[in-house]
Amino acid sequence: MVMDATNWDEDAYRNTILHERETQCRTVFRAIFAPSNPNHNPNPDIVVAASSDGSVAAYSLSSILSSIESRYGVPTPQQVFTAEPYCFLQAHEGPAYDVKFYGDDDDALLLSCGDDGWIRGWKWKELEESETPIHKQGSHVKPSIDLMNPQHRGPWYATSPISENNAIAVDHQRGSIYAAAGDSCAYCWDVETSKIKTVFKGHLDYLHSIIAPTGSNQIITGSEDGTARIWDCRNGKCVQVISPKRESLKEVSSVSCIALDASESWLACGSGKSLYVWNLLASEQISRISTPTTCQDVVFDDNHILAVGASSMLSRMDMNGKILSQIRCAPESAFSVSLHQSGVIVVAGYTGLVDVVSQFGSHSCTFRCTSV
Length: 372
Description:
The structure is a single chain. By secondary structure, the chain is mainly beta. The chain has a domain at about 45-150 and about 345-370. The protein is about 10% helix and about 45% strand. The protein is built from four helices and 29 strands. The strands form seven sheets. The protein has a five-stranded mixed beta sheet with strand order 4-29-28-27-26, with helices on one face. Strand 24 (about 315) and strand 25 (about 325-330) form a beta hairpin. The longest helix has 16 residues, at about 10-25. The relative contact order is 0.13. The model has no long low-confidence stretch (mean pLDDT about 90). InterPro entries: THOC6, WD40/YVTN_repeat-like_dom_sf, WD40_repeat_dom_sf, WD40_rpt. This is THO complex subunit 6.
């Protein structure tokens, strides 16, 4: 076999190999559904993913399914499609850990947080309608909101490093964005003024997760110190410390993820290889559910609990821990599970894989996130 190397482009070849390796090593830390009008389209279409390369990208499920069908026919669970985003933001220097939508109307903001200590927000409608070519979007699209964690002053006027933001929550009614930070504090930001309203101090280690109930002026945080805490947003005081009842004193694990049910009466905490279910009204732990691997994300679906972790399994359980179903997903380790109001589930994790599961438990499609 003879190869003509006259027009060989060594730089292009190296860039191609590097891009392939980066794609294979990517981790999607959060994938969520974009808001849609249920009167116009009750089915989910847009998935937004935050990845380890600092990018936040939006993917159209209808376009992905159309491309798969045109190329391969009916998709199979083993088939992985490399998807091109229709919107791409180089949001952070370092990994992007979380994305949320602030509002669900024409003024909705797409928020992200990451390892660089910033929370950034873009107007979602402008991103959807942007005519900027995808390969030029990256860092050229400027955010509408830029919030950076404060630095703390120590001895001899030394300032601390800027701590990362591991998760965010929103309260559109009160105009607030909440951040779970790496300095063991949670912060409440005012959207209008871009200033910190409240600092929540009390955890002994960095925070993994944060949620903002809609029915009360409170937030709930989960920390590496092994506890979850409920805070009063009016004064920043901790009103309850939730310490999961573990089987032994040696079993000390962080609270890696938390979730509230729709009634905001039940709290699920993922800690190590266990899920703990609390009745908040009774301030009592109701059940401890053993999981085969470390639990990394959890969400309620009515009276059921969906959980993913350091394996490829998506588990559905009842409140007492009975396994109702298990679905093998594409990511070997999953960091995110999100539920659409139609019942469609999206699971994301290692190697940049996003798995879309229908409300009937079948795989709709699996795609790999890419950079541009």
